[in-house]
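agent> Task received from the user: take the single chain below, predict its 3D structure, and emit structure tokens. No templates, no multimer pairing.
agent> Plan: (1) validate residues, (2) run structure prediction, (3) serialize to tokens, (4) report one or two observations.
agent> Step 1 OK, no nonstandard residues flagged.
tool_call: predict_structure(input=
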Amino acid sequence: MAVVEYTTEGHVALITINRPEARNAVNAEVANGIEESIDRLEADDSLWLGILTGVPPVFCSGADLKEINAGRGASLNTERGGFAGITRRERTKPIIAAVDGPALAGGTEITLACDLVVASTNATFGVPEVKRSLVAAGGALFRLPRKLPANLAMELILTGDPVDAARAHQFGYVNHLCQPGEALDKAKELARRIEANAPVSVRTSRRVVLAAATADEDTGWHLSEEGMATAMGSADFSEGLTAFIEKRPPKWTGR
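)
tool_result: status=success, residues=255
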């Protein structure tokens, strides 16, 4: 059985880390499996977004420390994706993290690389690397302060202690909080809400939001205008207006 499973539902790709006996820790096979899954998502025009989850009771415990201790730490990174095949991966389609258990160390960094997070009350997030004489090098040191208040992010980074999903939701890290066992279903509900929209507009809007996050307003205006031009030049542009006028759901092509 593959340690990363890939299935599709409608226009959504479901990527599942399936290594529960190792707390879904990232080894070379997991990293390559996630990267290959993202490749498939990006290459398939019929797929508009993805969901990334892990077989409960753990979302992902981070890097497989046995691999690092054996001198194989480099294998947990892919050339294009970085750690776990995702943390540095450039892509165009949104990915939702469905978290129904602890997401720690690299597991937290995987969620930070996703665009949205749905989590159950069983979920926790944290970067305990300092407890093992390591550094959270998969993006947490700069992404976590963008998701949480700076002092709270600093506390998590310096103490290595986790934050529970309810508090992460309070500060906006988690988009939707749900009961245990419901994270994947709630993520699919969120995916359907995104799936209902024009795919080119979704991808373009995502790109502008990410590019403008640390830019000045002039750059933000420029990127927004470019984004509008891209959306208006898509094949789905006239369909969106026509469907509105005809008072019917649009039939998107994704082009």
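agent> Step 4: summary for the user.
Residues 28-43 form the longest helix (16 residues).
agent> Done.
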